[in-house]
Amino acid sequence: MKSIRNKTSLILDLFFCIVLMPVLVMLGPARYWINQWPLFSVTVFAWLYLCYFVISRLNIPKLLINRQYWKIGAIAGTIALVTCLISFYPLPDMDFVTPALSEYQTRVRNFGVSITLWLMFSIVTGYSLTISFVKELYEQLIANRRAEEERNKAELAMFKAQISPHFLFNTLNSLYSLVIGTSEKAENAFIKFTDILRYTYVTLQKEHVTLAEEVSYISNYIDLQKLRLNEHTDIVWEFKTDNPEAVVPPMLMLTFVENAFKYGVSTSRDCRVEIRLTLTDGNLHFTTRNSVMKHQEEFRKDMPVGVANSRSRLKLLYPGKHSLETGETDGVFCVDLTINLYGDETGKDVIVKNG
Fold first, then answer.
1. Does the pTM of the predicted model rise above 0.70?
2. What is the secondary structure of 170-197 as a DSSP string?
3. DSSP string covering 256-319, please?
4. Which of 170, 223, 234, 354 is deepest in the core (most CB within 10 A)?
5. pLDDT of 110 strictly over 60
């Protein structure tokens, strides 16, 4: 798909360069400028080509969506100012019998040149903006299609691997009835495990869940992990949000949480797993810190795959609105994820450190 986008952009650029601009020049008064004022002609045509490539590459639609009006104003003001300066290019005066007639004809000529220049500039700007909006719409359509394909693949994989939900939940209910009263820990574990499975099945068809639901899911998962660990493992799980009803894709952070417990805990050596999640003014910040306690070679082989899958999902869901930093330093693996849920660009998609 990236190849198709590049080809489409190339075709649109070639159409402007070898079709639209030559037609615009040859069918208007600008065709007479080439012989009379070659330096002025080269300046005008070079400026119009530059305007096209600058405007079409700036992604004005995304700036509008992100309400970065000051950038749009600064760009528009700069381009208009340079065009205005070019319109005052000192062309040679016209020579008639009387100086008064020469001055008058020169002003008329300069006015006609200025009008032609601004007309060409308007056409080029309009075409550039149209191309910019068309490209953004095309990108959104492709991104939506890829997200749909990824979601379909995930659903297919889940359907292939899952046991019948009714059978599974009925079996769990039967097992739960056997352990009632025997152990409070066992009862709580069954409840949390059932909640996790129910959340997984229910959110399978959903594109978004509330952050409160996602936090509850992560909490249940961490509580279940604590049951099998002893005093050697210190677990820190903190979350703080100013909007529990904010929506996020389901199980977005699950890979990082699972890996923190899979590779970062030990029953014989002291270790620490830190998981933190905050949401402030639409900025979601999620971090994990854990020592690589076991299966180090397996970790270094498998971990990039999990991170790559999460990175691909984030890039589809939050293009230009997230940053993901991962890295292992002195045996400690760190994940630092930031997402702007309200749409402003963070300025970077993904940053990967230390592999």
1. no
2. HHHHHHHHHHTTT-HHHHHHHHHHHHHH
3. HHHHHHHHH--SSS-EEEEEEEEEETTEEEEEEEEE--S-HHHHHHHHHHHHHHHHHHHHHHST
4. 223
5. yes
